[in-house]
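Running this now, will post back.
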Amino acid sequence: MQISMRDIHKAFGANKVLEGVNIDIQDAEVHALMGENGAGKSTLMNILTGLHKKDQGTIEIDGKERVFDNPKEAEENGVAFIHQELNIWPELTVLENLFINKEPVTSFGLIHTKKMKAIANEQFKKLAISIPLQQEAGKCSVGQQQMIEIAKALMTDAKVIIMDEPTAALTEREIQTLFQVIRSLKKSGVSIVYISHRMEEIFTICDRITVMRDGKTVDTKPIPDTSFDEVVRKMVGRELTDRFPERAPKPGETMLEVKGLARKGIFQNVSFKVRSGEIVGVSGLMGAGRTEVMRTIFGLDGKYTGDIYIKGQKVVIKNPSQAVQLGLGFITEDRKEEGLVLDFSLKDNIALPSLYSFAPKGLINEKSEQDFVELLIKRLTIKTESAKTSAKNLSGGNQQKVVIAKWIGIGPKVLILDEPTRGVDVGAKREIYQLMNELTDRGVAIIMVSSELPEVLGMSDRILVFREGQLTGEVSKEEATQEKIMTLATGGQENEE
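Update: finished.
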């Protein structure tokens, strides 16, 4: 299938999102679509699949002008979209999610469960997924939900599959499995539109790249004819210096310590310290217990055994309110469900954890609140028309910045960042890294959970590695390599020189 989109325009009210975008998708190619958050990438693909209507321009499929009325029609005609924000029904089982509105039926008109399980198991085998089909989807991790969405799209027999940040919540091993599937799909004639901010992936898996900036097409090139630096320059319109800013940590007193922390059947005997002024990276494969440990420390997941100390004082954290009062902030990996109130404005989202500071006598000082919010919007360069804009109307990367802003606003002693740059473009990533440096310079202790090994290696002063619910090792910045971390994460043996 060949797709040509020409001179595409789209505005939401006074906000011009696309202004004359051009893109061609050829048969059996992996086509990268890159740009900063808010550049219009997802909007362009939403227009292709009928979720939004274009204001101007033409769309041709196999040489004939075509406009889909809705995503279901697009899917029925061979164009599937795996969205960055997952479309999972949490109360339904994994199997029900895979076949929602597409359940095969028997000759008697009954749902053919046996056939559904056979198809699902075959697809899961291709993707090396081991998730029980009868498990509630809401109990799956974000990474598992992402793999479910990928499996669902592959089951549609699509000719073009749009993948919007498909690896954002996946581990290195799962990414390699996905790449094998993409190569197999390409061999069978399927085209992939690959939207990602992970530069290494673009240069590993893609054939051509289209770069967008501020709602316009900047360039389209074969991957061998461009470079990391050129793509970044075209995305951001300026030179970007080193990817990870230099760190000069000056660790101080121990701000957080856990001893023998455990939750039955999930993780056990976890002990570590985090000092003021340092970034401790946390790595490991999906399901290793990284996120579960952090959620427990923050009081999100109920009872635990073991001890937690804040600045040397033993504490019992039963809920997030207590954690916040003790000086902890937590940026969760699932911004849509847990990080934001999507119908609230930016102002209300950012100010939410800090409301008491604006109401010393019970009444909110609106000017102080507004000044506080505007300062954080400016500091994190959140792209928005105003602080009154609804959070759901922002791009994924700008939503992530709002989540970071609200937790920075409480002035935490310890800040836990779970996948802090998920779905964030290369320019915004550097801004977040610089912000992390500023926070540690002020004495904040940071724990950064990340599936991106380059990020863990580039920003951490020490790295904790988890495997199967246990802390398997701690690696200093000087000793850290991708091989060493993956060895600890998988239980393998390091190669001897």
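Residues 493-497 have pLDDT under 50 and may be disordered. More later if anyone needs it.
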